[in-house]
Amino acid sequence: MSRLRDLGVDPGRLPPGQHNAITDVPDVRVGHTTLISGEGPLREGVGPLRTGVTAVLPHGGNIYRDKVAAAVYSFNGYGKVMGFEQIRERGSLETPVLLTSNLSVARAGDALMSYMLRQNPDIALTAGTVNCVVGECNDGMLSDARGRHIRPEHVFAAIESASGGQVAEGNVGGGTGTTCYQFKGGIGTASRRPGDGGYTVGALVQANHGKREELMVLGVPVGLALADEDMPRHNPGSIMIVLATDAPLDGLQLTRLARRAALGLARTGTVSHDQSGDFIIAFATASRIPHEPQDLLLQSPRLHDRSATLDSFFLATVEAVEEAILNALLAAETMTGRDGLQVPALPPDRLCELLRRYGRL
């Protein structure tokens, strides 16, 4: 597995965090369940499987009891996400965020519901209901998507294995069977430290979008140069972007960050195709919302809307999303899936050759 910086590239203007990952935001955790089995012709309900689920947790406690401020943005709404409307209405997140296969959203959501009910026995009795949040990309080019193979144990394992530190990227979790710019895609992550205050912005993507000729790497038209090399035949897909920060941002400020994520996506070349579901979920771990407040008034710090400060957070978002997508491409490995269909990895040697030609290395 390699990442963009392993090539000797130092992208962007802002510094990354320790692991250059969403987990550089303190207490944020990521876990994966990866399902790879079977070869040859598609047998619906059997395989081959190239799928999985990724869980992003804003903290290690009970998220339902200790919610975080959140926002969502649908850059292009061709998708099957779950739980977005309540986040828009209330500005808070109360479950882990799951990323999985397009047709498995309902099953993953039901499993997440079971997990939350087990953790909180008073839900729907004395504590109200719970808003489960699930995003998706279509991995049906390589996997038996119609079989909907995500089971409760896969969701539980992703959540319970979630940890901080380095994050597995590429062909893992919800990115196992995805493609990106008609190369192998997957999970990617990156982080930035914006301006003053010691805060971090992290991004994690489930990359499954774009046509080959669109791919841009640091302004270099890599996709055009590699348009005739090892080209699979399939339509562009989607992308899920998860943003996290430890800055005390409220729902409106997080919405503004989420919108800027689309600019990081655009830097890699895509035009967000008609059937590309491009969704962003953003949360702030410092902005906690207790489920059972002790007082009528909730008092918490909020980052001031000072232009210089917010502009630094906007830049951090754009840079982290761009690098996360490129990390997903470089970490992914060539994969053969159902019916012998193969999706090649982005070749690092050819990428380096092109970056040198354009003075980026």
What would you say this structure looks like, in words?
The protein has helices at residues 84-90, 105-119, 152-160, 222-225, 251-267, 307-331, 348-357; strands at 29-37, 49-57, 66-77, 92-93, 97-101, 133-137, 179-180, 183-184, 186-192, 201-207, 239-245, 277-290, 335-336, 342-343. With 361 residues, the chain is an alpha+beta fold. The protein has a single domain (4-357), classed as L-amino peptidase D-ALA esterase/amidase, CATH 3.60.70.12. The strands form four sheets. Strands 4-3-12-11-10-9 form a six-stranded mixed β-sheet, sandwiched between helices. A four-stranded mixed β-sheet has the order 1-2-5-6. Strands 7-8 form a two-stranded antiparallel ribbon. β7 (179-180) and β8 (183-184) form a beta hairpin. α2 crosses α3 (152-160) and α5 packs across α6. The longest helix is centred in the last third of the chain and has 25 residues, at 307-331. The radius of gyration is 19 Å and the shape is globular. The model has no long low-confidence stretch (mean pLDDT 95).
Secondary-structure blueprint:
Elements: E1 29-37, E2 49-57, E3 66-77, H1 84-90, E4 92-93, E5 97-101, H2 105-119, E6 133-137, H3 152-160, E7 179-180, E8 183-184, E9 186-192, E10 201-207, H4 222-225, E11 239-245, H5 251-267, E12 277-290, H6 307-331, E13 335-336, E14 342-343, H7 348-357
Parallel strand pairs: 5-6, 11-12
Antiparallel strand pairs: 1-2, 2-5, 3-4, 3-12, 7-8, 9-10, 10-11, 13-14
Key phrases:
361 residues; alpha+beta; L-amino peptidase D-ALA esterase/amidase; four-stranded mixed β-sheet; 14 strands; 24% strand
